[in-house]
Amino acid sequence: MSIEVSRLSKTFHRRFRFGGEVGTQQAVSDISFTVREGEIAGFLGPNGAGKSTTMKMITGYLPPTAGTVLVNGKNIAKEPRSAKQSIGYLGEHNPLYLDMYVHEYLAFAAGLYGLSSTARRKRVKEMLSLCGLEPEQNKKIGQLSKGYRQRIGLAQSLIHDPPVLVLDEPTSGLDPNQLVEMRKLIKSVSARKTVLFSSHILQEVEALCERVIVIHHGVIVADDRLANMVRGRTEAVVIEFSASVSEGILSAAEGVQSVSVAGPNRYRLVARPGFDIRVSLIRLAAERRLPMVGMVQEENSLESVFSQLTTEASS
Amino acid sequence: MFRIFLKEVNSFLDSLIGYVVVAVFLVVTWLLMWVFPETSVLDYGFADMDTLFSLGPFVFVFLIPAITMRSLAEEKKLGTLEWLLTKPVSEGAIVAGKFLAAVSLASVALLPTLIYYVTLYKLGNPVGNIDTSGVVGSYIGLVLLGAVFCATGVLASSLASNQIIAFLLAALLCFLLYSGFDSAAALAEDGNVSLFVRQCGIRYHFESLSRGLIDSRDILYFFTLCGVLLLCAKTVLSSRSW
Does A114 touch chain B (CB under 8 A)? Predict the structure, then answer.
């Protein structure tokens, strides 16, 4: 029940436009990754990095220019029906039939997966209660707000209890409360499922995923466990004194690579890789009787990793 | 395929398109058959339904594209086609479901016109003096012609991402398929060429059925034409390059 993507590429051909250019655009180039069974992988990247294109290829909507996608061991190009049967997909813009009733739409989606009429009724009911749609089930989708529509999108992707879930920015356009609810929902349904989940909101990925795949300009620039990604990067400490201290004294502490002034009586010290300079700084302050009043370790968040990765690759 | 078909039929009933199509067809054919003096059967004096069967195809040229124009064009515009294609449903099933739904609606529009037949049957002097086999053949022809128009409409809808363009394209194609070949045949000087060109068009086969002679070649012609048009629509969907 895994997603295996190998050497996948997609080239779009730009059509002729007056005043425009004709040419090709490489949306995704030669990417490979595997999401193992039971794993929640975050698919990160700035807008236009190729996330959606990759997901459309995984779900069998776009044919890839080169490379293969195996879902659950089945090649999506060769056995589209059985591969698609095991995927639940929530698309980027979450297209819905606005003139259908909520329950009718879910039953239609269930029918497309070949569920029998009793199974259909049962699953629709379960999904309505799971996604909190029961009070709205007899409304037309067009009458509902963005938050509810997004829940309907998630409900239809889960209707056949798929082992593989592909969610393309499921939380875009939601207000903060809905955001939290949606995340909770995704977290609760994704147990025992293989999930590939794209987003450009980093906190969300931190909250949901164990593993992160970062894509930029159609190339994978990082693919690692979240903990590993944040660890092992340059660490910095901001230290504050009640009086000014010469930078030379501070740079003498063990493991300090560089010192810069961060404000009045505040200094930012960057550690050499592998050193925790906080210990040596406290020792130094005690020995030299420096009037230290505070020390904060700069959190090496996913955010800074992300911005490093996606600017490194473009330069 | 059956799911798509059901969904389409429901959307016809839901969006009033179904009712409007049936109503418009009936009003137009009723006016032509009984009211307008140029084409009225009452003024004509013979108990036959030629008015319906000669003008019906032209009503269909406008009405059927109106049924089919939404089918794929709207799904493309809303992005729901993309959604459908990530489901375990083949492109062929989508096209076939839409096509069958449109054919059913067109056939339902034809059903009430059986009253015209009953009326003429009673009005005949003596009662029942009407070419029943011709009428049966004509009805079969009209349904088959409607099916070809539906296939054309679905194809047009697969090519366009705008309903109006889908409508106009379908209406043009239907018109050309129905009477374009006849006009082209008139240009040919060689009799054999002219006949061949005429046989390519729908009207030749429709008229042959209207005579009450159900020829397997005519039936085969309609089925083949539907098949080819639907295959084209499926190919367009598979190419993803709309």
Answer: yes
